[in-house]
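Aim 2 progress. For 8-oxo-dGTP pyrophosphatase MutT (NUDIX family), the working sequence is reproduced below.
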Amino acid sequence: MTDRGRLEALSTRIHGERAVYTDKWVRLTLVDIEPPGGGRFEHHVVRLARVVTAAVINESDEVMLMWRHRFAVDEWGWELPGGIAEVGEEPAVTAAREFEEETGWRPIGSLRHLVSFQPMPGMVDTPHEVWTAVGAEKVGEPSDTEEAAVIEWVPLANVPDMVKRGEIAGSGPLVGLLTLLMERQGN
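Predicted structure tokens for this construct:
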């Protein structure tokens, strides 16, 4: 059996999909699947829009983070500025727009793609992208004031301890910041 044939034999077959609930933010579907060696059944899948965040570093090797309360889990934590990409919007444009709306700062120069990932690919389809830039200029106050209680430049060197203390718990900032740190270490 070829590698392709073996992979196909190990893949879950999809027989169809139907929406259970849909609005502008979320789509809940039931997918008719047949795992290899298993019976056929329907599996819930949550489909969300593409999320784009910005990890902007300043000349002091600090990253801008937002301290936010997330009601769904009733927890506070540090996050990267970001949000949902508008239909047809380029991800670098989304990252810059969201960064400015949420912080009042504008990245200087072009943003560079850092990493793309799916935080929960077994049940949730929500593509995430993290973009990075060096430098930002203050252009005003945040226009989206509900996004952050505190906006702060945080030393990048503090990130590993913040992660250990559970202060950075969301998959977006975790993946983005840890990828940025690995990249800086040559990994």
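The chain has a mean pLDDT of 92. This observation will guide construct design in the next reporting period.
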